[in-house]
C-alpha cells in the first residue's frame, strides 16, 4: 500500500495490524453509537436495536473491522511497533522544540490499491476540487495509525522496510534515547543543602 503522496506505508493489509477499535468498550459494545450517535442516527439506531453490540468484535458477528463505517484504531502504547524503541518525553520548557523519538504513522488511507472506484454523477464534478481541499487525514477511509521511531519511519517510507520486520533499534535511536534519559535525570535531580553550602560563605570577612 502507498500513501497519497506515493510512499510506502509498510503493510499489505492495515486491518491485520489492528487489535481493537477505539470505540469498542471492554464489554464489546459500540461507544460511538452510545456517545456520538447524533452524527449518524441510522447507524446508532441499528446498534441500539442490538443492545449496542459491536458486530465486528463479536467472534460470531457478521462484520469485519473494514465493514464498520466508523471504525478507528490508534496505537496507545508509546513504542515503535517495528523495533520496540520507547518514547522518552521531555516535560521541561527547553524540550518543547525537541523532535519526538516516535512519530505517528498511518497504515490506512483512502481504500486499498485497486479498490478505489471512479466517482459518478454529481460527485464526479466536485471530486477533484474536494480532493485538493482535503488534507490526507480527512481523505482516509478508516483511520489506522501506529507509532514508529523516526529511524524506522524513514526506512518504511523509503519503501524497503516493513512495519512487521523483526528489527532492533538503530544505534542512533538508542543513543538519542539515552541522551534524553540523561537530560531528564539531570533536570529532575537536585542538590542537598550540604552540597549547596559554600564553606567560604562563613569565613569572617572582618
Task: Give the secondary structure arrangement, pairings included.
Blueprint: H1 31-35, H2 41-49, E1 72-74, E2 102-106, H3 122-133, E3 143-149, H4 150-157, H5 171-188, H6 193-196
How does this model look, in words?
The protein contains six helices and three strands. With 206 residues, it is an alpha+beta fold. It has helices at residues 31-35, 41-49, 122-133, 150-157, 171-188, 193-196, and strands at 72-74, 102-106, 143-149. It has a three-stranded mixed β-sheet with strand order 1-3-2. The protein has two domains: 1-21 and 71-113 and 135-188, no CATH class; 22-69, no CATH class.
Short characterization:
The chain has 206 residues and is an alpha+beta fold. 27% of the residues lie in helices and 7% in strands.
Total beta-strand segments: 3
Secondary structure class reads: alpha+beta
The radius of gyration computed from the alpha-carbon positions, rounded to a whole number of angstroms, is 25 Å
How far apart the termini lie comes to 81 Å
Largest sheet: 3 strands, mixed
Strand composition percent: 5-15%
Strand order of the largest sheet: 1-3-2
* CA-based shape: elongated
Mean pLDDT: 76
Listing every helix as H and every strand as E from the N terminus to the C terminus, the arrangement reads HHEEHEHHH
Tally of separate helices: 6
Spans of at least 5 consecutive residues with low confidence: 110-140
Number of domains: 2
Query: How helical, in percent, are the residues?
Result: 25-40%
